[in-house]
């Protein structure tokens, strides 16, 4: 008989082609919206999505973790501010943070509300505040992929332009001038907004990574651009709305040693 919590299991999205060994945890918090889409993106990317719950103290041996988008705990106080104290986040901070000395640190991706949690948890630098125009935005957004050395971006080409949806209220990325300079100098901007500035983020930063490169946060939503005909048109018009899928195939490939 299984000793696992009934909350732990695989999402039921139908896998296209799963590779053994890439078990990617997708965490659900009260108020999470995009866990099912993130799980589906994982399976379409060739991995196995494992459902994790905010109250879990264990990551159940997953190979990577996604913190999906939504309004965890109703975005009360600040988006991500309460989620940061969930039991699963305490464990994540220990297993993915700066004090972790493993030679293959746990890959973590925070998407939108997940990015907000990662800054609140100080796994990533900077903070997220209200969009400069103080309105919720919901639009397709072109991004430039500027760092392809993370597990989540390894299969993009340098400076590749991609189009994925974005939808948020607290999406303006801010840092101190000193931290901003350090992030830029160290090449830790992973995604940058192209075209109209959607929210006033410093240096048009849409996504960053930590010093070790295992933790990545981004504001727009690659998991909503993984199936032809459903995501926005690609920046080059070539991929019919599937630009986000490379995030998920990248991590699956990286976990398999970059062989796929
Ligand atoms: N898409 C998301 O994750 C949503 C929203 C986010 N909590 C916000 O800033 O509005």
UniProtKB/TrEMBL annotation:
Q: Where are the catalytic residues?
A: 112 (nucleophile), 221, 223
- So, what pathway does this thing act in? Purine metabolism; IMP biosynthesis via de novo pathway; 5-amino-1-(5-phospho-D-ribosyl)imidazole from N(2)-formyl-N(1)-(5-phospho-D-ribosyl)glycinamide: step 1/2
An annotated GO cellular component: cytoplasm
The molecular function terms in GO held by this entry are: ATP binding; glutaminase activity; phosphoribosylformylglycinamidine synthase activity
Q: Could you tell me which SUPFAM superfamilies the record lists for this protein?
A: Class I glutamine amidotransferase-like
Q: Which UniProt keywords apply?
A: ATP-binding, Cytoplasm, Glutamine amidotransferase, Hydrolase, Ligase, Nucleotide-binding, Purine biosynthesis
* The reaction(s) this protein catalyses: N(2)-formyl-N(1)-(5-phospho-beta-D-ribosyl)glycinamide + L-glutamine + ATP + H2O = 2-formamido-N(1)-(5-O-phospho-beta-D-ribosyl)acetamidine + L-glutamate + ADP + phosphate + H(+); L-glutamine + H2O = L-glutamate + NH4(+)
Can you say where in the cell this protein is located?
Cytoplasm
A Gene Ontology annotation in the biological process aspect, one of them, is:
'de novo' IMP biosynthetic process
Query: Which EC numbers does the record give?
Result: 6.3.5.3, 3.5.1.2
Q: How does it assemble?
A: Part of the FGAM synthase complex composed of 1 PurL, 1 PurQ and 2 PurS subunits.
The entry's function note states:
Part of the phosphoribosylformylglycinamidine synthase complex involved in the purines biosynthetic pathway. Catalyzes the ATP-dependent conversion of formylglycinamide ribonucleotide (FGAR) and glutamine to yield formylglycinamidine ribonucleotide (FGAM) and glutamate. The FGAM synthase complex is composed of three subunits. PurQ produces an ammonia molecule by converting glutamine to glutamate. PurL transfers the ammonia molecule to FGAR to form FGAM in an ATP-dependent manner.
Q: Which NCBIfam families match?
A: FGAM_synth_I (TIGR01737), PRK03619.1 (NF002957)
| Name of the protein in question | Phosphoribosylformylglycinamidine synthase subunit PurQ
Which organism is the protein's source? Garicola koreensis
Q: Which gene encodes it?
A: purQ
